[in-house]
Amino acid sequence: MDLVRRETVVADGTTVSYTVVDGVEPTVVILHGLAGSGREFERTASGLAGRRVILVDQRGHGHSTRHPRDTTRDAFVSDAVAVIAAESAHAVDLVGQSMGAHTAMLLAAAHPRLVRRLVLLECDAGSGTPEEHAALGDYFRSWPVPFTDRAAAAVALGAGPLAQAWVADLEECADGLYPRFDPDVMVAAITEVATPRWKDWEQVAVPTLVIYAENGMFTEQQKANFVARGGNVTRIDLAGASHDAHLDAFDEWMTALTSFLDVRSAEPQMHMGDTP
């Protein structure tokens, strides 16, 4: 699979980096979760053989600007819109996980002509407490960086799928390996996600697949409420999976994803200027 890295500079000066996998339209655009990057979805892109895929490093993450001035939800949405506008003349299939799913949800609400189908992995309208966010920041600050090598990072971070993704994505600097994100920026970004956006969610009209993990971060009440307040929603639950189901329940994740993306594959492509 050939990955071509590109970037665009948005209105506030933030550089948004992304990789493109060539293939047939409609393009699949994938948005990662907090403290992740497009790299953790490369295996997913490979599993979408034949489809054109764009893996976005959201602002503050991966190869994009590390310390953006703006960490509002609108800024994240505008970045994704800029990438879609630069790369596709047609509506895309938009996929997101966790914070990336929240971004995707808001984009589909604000820009319905850009989205043909929507896939949300581990998403709700907005949740989290200041105490949880502070604890997350403390955890990221506790990493003993720089790591001398990836083996040392693996010992420090653990052997789980998410830790392995972090280790694989560490940036090589002169004095060692560093994460491709700043803890303070992560706290600022996730704090914005906590504000419930029910009005936005309720106006999403495109066909939507909501995927939850059995051992994810949401209660059954939260899951059921989110799905019930959606407009055109199919729900799938992944048994035994975690919040990062795209990593630790890959086969089940891909079965759900490809089934939903392929079921309407015979539909004509919608140009962004067409009326839905």
Summarize the structure.
Helices cover 37% and strands 24% of the residues.
Write a structural description.
- This protein has 276 residues and is an alpha/beta fold.
- Helix content is 37%, strand content 24%.
- It has helices spanning 42-47, 73-87, 99-110, 130-141, 150-157, 161-168, 183-193, 198-202, 220-228, 245-248, 250-262; strands spanning 4-9, 15-21, 24-31, 51-57, 92-97, 115-121, 171-173, 176-178, 208-215, 233-242.
- The protein has an 8-stranded mixed sheet, sandwiched between helices.
- The two termini are 33 Å apart.
- The model is unreliable at 263-271 (pLDDT under 50).
What's the overall geometry? Answer: globular
Q: How is the largest sheet built, in terms of strand order?
A: 1-2-4-3-5-6-9-10
Content of β-strand = 15-25%
Total strands: the figure is: 10
**Low-confidence blocks of residues:** 263-271
Overall structural class, as computed from helix and strand content, comes to alpha/beta
Instruction: Please outline the major beta sheet.
Output: 8 strands, mixed
Cα gyration radius (Å): 18 Å
SSE order in H/E notation?
EEEHEHEHEHHHEEHHEHEHH
Q: What level of helicity do the residues show?
A: 25-40%
Terminal Cα separation, in Å? 33 Å
What is the overall pLDDT average?
Answer: 94
The count of helical stretches stands at 11
Summary tags:
eight-stranded mixed sheet, alpha/beta, globular, two-stranded antiparallel ribbon, 276 residues
Secondary-structure blueprint:
Layout: E1 4-9, E2 15-21, E3 24-31, H1 42-47, E4 51-57, H2 73-87, E5 92-97, H3 99-110, E6 115-121, H4 130-141, H5 150-157, H6 161-168, E7 171-173, E8 176-178, H7 183-193, H8 198-202, E9 208-215, H9 220-228, E10 233-242, H10 245-248, H11 250-262
Helix pairs in contact: 2-3, 4-7, 5-6
